[in-house]
Design goal:
single chain; alpha+beta; OB fold (Dihydrolipoamide Acetyltransferase, E2P); 5-stranded mixed barrel; two-stranded antiparallel sheet; globular
């Protein structure tokens, strides 16, 4: 009997060990702040410090760029003070966790791109090129503009947006 219990425990532990080995952390959290269309602050439901997360695979317009305020407002309306499921993989050069978030089983990174509130960035595991093509075809959000400027080009030309006065 003990052998079966041990074997069952070992089998059930494999997915979590694989996730840990791959540098993936999955947890449920409450969104406490939306900084912009691709950056949120969360509080893990299990406790611990607040975490600043950069949504991986997307690039939302800068706050001072056309569409930036709309992206932040739409994301905030959808998730602020709500529970989300977080899949965090490492961090960026600014120390933000790189994450994909889900709400009620929907990938919100994909939703932002499909809604025209963000561009797909990079490829890899969470490439959102299909959602971006759909948003372009349907002329949603920033893709309704004749020549939308990707955020990376905007940052290259203008630098970062000035911080608001406090």
């Amino acid at each position: 009997m003990r052998v079966w219990a041990w074997l069952l425990g070992a089998v059930l532990a494999v997915p979590s060990m694989q996730a840990a080995a791959a540098g993936v952390e999955r947890y449920t959290a409450r969104v406490t702040r939306v900084s912009d269309g691709d950056t949120v602050w969360v509080q893990p439901v299990s406790g611990g410090p607040y975490r600043k997360l950069r949504l991986v695979g997307i690039d939302a317009p800068e706050i001072c760029q056309s569409g930036g305020q709309a992206a932040r407002a739409a994301l905030a309306e959808r998730v602020l003070q709500q529970r989300v499921r977080v899949e965090e993989r490492g961090s960026d050069t600014y120390g933000r966790g790189l994450a994909r978030i889900e709400q009620d089983g929907e990938d919100l990174n994909a939703w932002l791109v499909r809604s025209g509130l963000a561009w797909a960035s990079g490829g890899g595991r969470h490439g959102y090129k299909d959602q971006q093509q759909q948003a372009r075809r349907e002329r949603r959000g920033v893709f309704a503009e004749a020549r939308p400027e990707p955020p990376r080009d905007f940052r290259r030309r203008h630098g970062p947006c000035p911080l608001p006065a406090r």
